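[INFO] parsing input record for NOL11 protein
[DEBUG] input buffer:
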Amino acid sequence: ISDQKPLGCWSVKHGQVLTCPVVCNFETHEYIAVHDDKVLRIWKDEDINLDKVFKATLSADVYRIHSLPQGGPLVLFRGGGVRTLDVLLEAPQQEIENVVSAEVIRWSGAFMEGQEPVLIFTTEKDGHFFVYVQKPKLSSLHRYKLEQQESAKPLCFTAHITNQTVTLLCLYSNYSVYQVLIPLQQDTEENEEEQEEEEEVLSKSLLLNLSVSGTVLKGTSLVVLDKDHIAVLGSLAAPGKQPKEYLTIWNTKFQTLQTSKELPLGTSGQLWCYEEKFFLIHGKVLTVIMYKCETSSLAAAVGKLKDSQTPDVSSFLNWNTLEDEELVVSIQSQESVALKAESRMNLRSRSTVAEQQQETLSVGQLLINLKDSSTYVLETELRKLMAKAPTPDLQATIGCVVTALIDRCKRNPKYYPQNFLHQIVETRDLSYSLCPDLMALALEKKDMHLLQVCLQRFPDIPEEVTYTCLNVFLSMSDAHLQSIDVDLDSVICYIDIELDNKEVKTEIVENGFSAEMDQDTKIPRESQFRSDGGSCPVGLQKAALLNAVLHSAYTETFLLPHLKNLPARQAILFLRYLYYLYVKCSEKVNTTLPGIRSPTINQIMDWMCLLLDAQFTVMVMLPEAKELLSNLHRFVRAQVRFYSELNKIEGSLQELQRLNHLRESQTYSIEVLEII
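[DEBUG] output buffer:
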């Protein structure tokens, strides 16, 4: 999430609707989805089209699929029936029992108790609420009725299991949190008979009133953090003021508000918690906040109680670091989606809290103090800061350092620490999201070498930035680039260039194979089809920069719209270079270009197809592209024919290889094999 890169995208056909959240099967690393209530789909990362993946039509409507790290996926049907995915796939059309009758499921959750998965769900019927506890592998089901309250009704639920006891937390419409304890029963025939005879009513106890300085927090979602802390998302409306949405952390043991954070852009009302991370929609972005719970103490609770006179409660987490441009701890940018791991919540005692805040502020305070210092002092202190940074916060600290340097460059256009920035990018494990303004600064300063290194090393560069770099590289003249220092390791071993009308070849012959030796074969030589006379259409420096673009990660869906804006002249030049690389790869027996970080045949083909998709109309209409497209077409057609012929004799070659293994090594013989 912090890298802002879509890893995969799948869609159903028009008219089909995904009817429950998609989950991941931790055991098989597959995705599981249900569309149109009954159609089950299962696929993996490498699958592209959902129409071609595994499909099973079930006999009943699915409410939710729950995936447990060690228990496998559980499928909960709208009628209350539960099946493990393995059992369901054995007979997808098996009959599913109707457990809940006319009741409607309102919430469900899955948990592990020892080695056994436990599924809990709540239902509603005519204003009455019921709780079901089910152990699918043991075919165990218990139904309870929730104690009714005339003045309020449940809005949402959450639960956890500790010591064979289910703790169900209910947020009611009077904005109080109630607790219900349900012991996990050992199933015997007597228990089943008692349950059938009498419906057990669960009593609830008040756990927490969501009130801050007399103002009620109107909660919409809650999650359990540990046995002493819960998080509630809701709105707080002071008298005479507009309601404001807050994420709040409460200590249930001491009945105190531990900390809160205003969310001014609004939320969807939903809050998720997974592996010590909060997930919530804030405005139009997905916000992720890491936290860490430690043992609750009375000192910490009392300390927070003193501060709870204002809605924005000060906390053991310095929330302000999420918004301070100087600290940059959260690595925010215009396209930032995530609040990084450095915005941690540590639920701990006051003494530890103070130390944590001091450590967090030390980096930011240092950067503020260095704001007006000399260039020499700034760089010296920043080098010291990177050298002594603790390992867990090293990346965040380096991100702060780079951002501080960029801020100095913005304030002083004459200042540009080129060598320092190169050293940081080349020796540190950075990403685009840690320093989002760095590549923009390099483009402004026309620092081609820094852009090259960023493209090679950053795994999360937005497609718009990748396109901008490509356009800049193609637009610059080769004469101008010759005076620029760039890394030529990816091109120096294979590229052909012309200097003063004299061709220089640095071609590597592999396994005794070269284009010159291949005069009589049917493999087309590049000189026959290359429209630019046989040499590389760009200079060494530009080729090295374009290779860096070919190495950068991208998502086709997001890159294609930008490539459509590439000027025709640059598009034709880029296609010529890609064609040149394609021919070069085809000369080699293993279709691999020599050199360090040279582009692969797959990268070349992918970019060539992408460019043709984006610029197809332009290429067809322009006379300058006609010869290039014709040559490319003939070369690809010849290759297809050649490999087709190889496929025809594949069986004979395999038989020959088998005979070689069977033949005695000391026996001399002459054999004639007829290939039909």
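[INFO] The CA atoms of residues 488 and 544 lie 6 Å apart.
[INFO] shutting down worker
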